[in-house]
Amino acid sequence: MESMAKVLLVEDNEMNRDMLSRRLIRKGYEVVIAVDGEQAVTMAISESPQLILMDMSLPIIDGWTATKQIKGHPDGAHIPIIALTAHAMASDRERAIAAGCDDYDTKPIEIKRLLQKMEALINWSVISLYFLIVKFINNFSKKLLPLEAASTSRWLYFELIIIESGYIKNI
Description:
Number of strands: 5
Shape: globular
Number of helices: 6
Oligomer: single chain
Structural class: alpha/beta
Largest sheet: 5 strands, parallel
Distance between the termini: 19 Å
Order of helices and strands: EHEHEHEHEHH
Strand content: 5-15%
Radius of gyration: 18 Å
């Protein structure tokens, strides 16, 4: 089975980590694991995941601080992060969003709900990338190619990028 997307799972509880990683792998995701906030920040940059599942109660650096550091780094700012926490108050959700999380889910994890959130954020990231590429190609091709050639050329180039990236199945 081809991997759908790389997910960084940040979870210090071994049972939670094992259960969730096995379910994600069964669904076709490539899973890399961090066990504390400090490791999460390092791995978010070095592993370039398409999504991060971030436990908020972590040792060394908590999930709120790790999220802020990842989102504050140029190579991590674009990575969607879903906060995972046992805290179910509205203020906890607001705190996670304020820290930079793109979504929020409560423990115990309901896998179907989490997968829907993950797929929505991964697909949104792909669509955002699409528009960035189109904008870049439009600007670039206007400078270098005549208008008619630019239109054809930019779309062929874009299709090649999307097909080679492996994201064609997510659009």
